[in-house]
């Protein structure tokens, strides 16, 4: 009797390594991670919050060799799409600075997914702790900075025969270097690449690059203002040339500068133009504090510190209530702060509405009459409350 022995292969299901993956088109992250055999780490995926983070993930995709993925042609913020981070079919890559994505959604893009049981280790992110979402308790456990490690994958094949078992182990290590143009590191929403400077430059000339986040913003600074001399704020809101022009303009604006000392006709009933009228309103509002919150106080004895973001943006005054002063003094300083802040920003916006180059006008005594009768404005007209007595401002520059 003849016996025939048939050799059958022993099939072992493949389990892919944990890490970063991109999805097929119209595939969700939940489905991709189920295919990998690992859980979808949604919080870790939310932390692809900068261009550098996205570049790092792109360099460490576990399935980068598969069809569909291409090197990013641009990397941009898209915090409002529920499927970002992803790469669209044009090769534009999107990260999110804030908010969360939905792992159950599919889209006509290649989504980025962390598929791992230990996401902080298997899905490396070198700048995870810098993300805004790390302030949330749901995400803070995943805000661990980690670098990619070279992994060696062991592939074992076992064949069963009638006479012997043959086992082979193959170690494979794949390293792929990707070089991109540095312009792709620019934050498209706030920066532009300038070849002459070989660097990313802020689109808004009043902004500067924050060395911590890499984005452009208006750096906050503390500014001390003498209560009886608000002109210092002009130097921070305006460039030097414009600030000097304002301080010599009209009848009332010179009160913001040294000319108020040598010109005995500064002030009065005259208003040369809209800018001069706003300076007049500024100092009338300050005078009204002398009849209200600042009554009985010698302003020369006090100063206040405000927080200003950039040259032309938000000014904060609330911190003045934390000072170790009597309540009436703190209220006085706060009222002066909001008057000075809003008046300076009001002038700034008025100048922005002027379509031609603005030139200051230096006046004479005849153009700034002082009198005790009409059309001079009488005293006692201090209705309303700061920042503008007598009416509400069109906007508030302070918080």
3D structure, described in words:
The protein has 399 residues and is of the alpha+beta class. The protein has nine helices and 17 strands. Helix 8 (274-289) runs antiparallel to helix 9 (327-352). The radius of gyration is 33 Å and the shape is elongated. The model is unreliable at 6-13, 151-165 and 391-399 (pLDDT under 50).
Keywords summarizing the entry:
alpha+beta; 3-stranded antiparallel β-sheet; 9 helices; 17 strands; 5-stranded mixed β-sheet; disordered C terminus; 399 residues
Short description:
By secondary structure, the protein is of the alpha+beta class. The protein has helices at residues 29-36, 42-46, 51-59, 119-122, 232-237, 240-247, 259-262, 274-289, 327-352, and strands at 8-9, 19-22, 74-77, 86-87, 92-95, 110-115, 153-160, 165-172, 191-194, 199-202, 208-209, 216-217, 220-226, 303-309, 315-316, 384-385, 388-389.
SSE order and pairing:
Blueprint: E1 8-9, E2 19-22, H1 29-36, H2 42-46, H3 51-59, E3 74-77, E4 86-87, E5 92-95, E6 110-115, H4 119-122, E7 153-160, E8 165-172, E9 191-194, E10 199-202, E11 208-209, E12 216-217, E13 220-226, H5 232-237, H6 240-247, H7 259-262, H8 274-289, E14 303-309, E15 315-316, H9 327-352, E16 384-385, E17 388-389
Parallel strand pairs: 3-5
Antiparallel strand pairs: 1-7, 2-6, 4-5, 4-6, 7-8, 9-10, 11-12, 13-14, 14-15, 16-17
Indicate the mean pLDDT: 79
Radius of gyration equals 33 Å
Separate helix tally: 9
Reading the helices and strands in chain order gives EEHHHEEEEHEEEEEEEHHHHEEHEE
| Low-pLDDT regions | 6-13, 151-165, 391-399
Shape: elongated
Strand content: 15-25%
| End-to-end C-alpha gap | 98 Å
Helix content percent band: 10-25%
Largest sheet features = 5 strands, mixed
Strand pairing plus helix content: what structural class? alpha+beta
| Order of strands across the main sheet | 2-6-4-5-3
Number of strand segments: 17
